Amino acid sequence: MNNNAVISNNANQDNFFGQLQRTRFQQFTESFPDTSLAPAGWIIDYKGELHQWNGTKWINLASNYVHPDYPLTNNPFQTDQTSGLLLLSQILTNSSGHVIKVAGRNLTNVDIVSIFLNDAIHSNTFTWSSDKIRTYIENLIGQSLTGALIYQPGGYIPSATKGSMTAPSPITSATIKTGMVWVITANGWVGNEPVSVGDHLIANTDNASNTTTNYQIIEKGIPDIVDATDSVKGLIQIATDVEAITGTDAVKAMTPRSTKAVLDAKIKSKTWQIGDGSSVTFPISHGWNTMNVDYTCYRNADNRKINLSCLPTSANDVQIDVLIPLTPNEYRITLTARLD
C-alpha cells in the first residue's frame, strides 16, 4: 500500500448518522498503545477484539451485555388502532425498572370537548369552539382597521399655490380617518411643503380636513435623494471591472459583469482526469502561485465523491496520493483556489 495516502482530520467528524462501510479499526497485536495523551473513548482492535479506553483502563467490548427479556402481560399498543384515540393510561415496572405491563384507554370526542372546550374565558388550559374563534377574529380585524394604512383610490392632486392645501377626497372631513393614504398624482404644494408625483399623503388624525398639520408626507422625490452610503439610501455610481477587482473603492457598486470579472480573477478552478492503471501518486501543476488549494474528487464510473490525499508541494503544484492504483481516467479531480 502507498504510505503517503493518508488523510489527516484535525477536527471532529460528523457523518450525520451515515454508515461506516469497508472500514477497519487500528490494529495492535503485541501490546496496547500508549495512552498518555489519549482521551476517553478511543477504540482499537487488540488481538482480534475491540477495546475502548475509558480514560483509566482498556475495556474489552467483546463482553457484550445481553438485555433480559420481560414479556409484557398486557400491551394494547401492539396492534393497529382502528377507531378512537388510544392513550397510555398505565405503566408497571418490576424492581429492576423494566416495563412489565402497559395499559391504555380510548379517548372519545366527548372526553375531548368536556376537558378542553370553554368559550367563556381566555386560558392556556381550554380551547374555543370554531364559532367563538371566528367571532373573535372578525372583531379583531374590525378593530385593527383603525390606524391602519388604508389606500384611497383616485389619488391626490395638491394645491398649485404655496401656503394652501387642497382637501383630499372624501371631501367631508368627518369621513377622513387616521391612516388613510393617498398617492400624489401631480406636482404642487401641501401648505408650505413641496410635493411631487409618487409622494404619499397620510392622515395622522381623524377628521383631518385640509389642515396641513394633520397629514404626514413620505417618499420624497428624486431631487431630495443624496449619495448612497452604508446607512443611507441614495444614488450610486457603477464600478469598472478594474475597480471591482482592486476592491478598494467603498462608494461604487458592482454589476453582474464586474462581479464575474472579480470571480474570474480571484477564483481559479480546473478539472483533471487521473489514473493510468499503475500509479498511486499523481503530480498536478496548476500554475496559480498559491499554496491555498482545495480539491473535489469523483469516481467517473458512478459519480461517487472520493476523499483522498491532496498535498501542495509548491505554489504551483499539488501531489495526489491514493491507496491502490487507479484504472485509466478512473477519477476526475477539480482543484480550486482563491487568489489574494
TrEMBL record:
This is Uncharacterized protein.
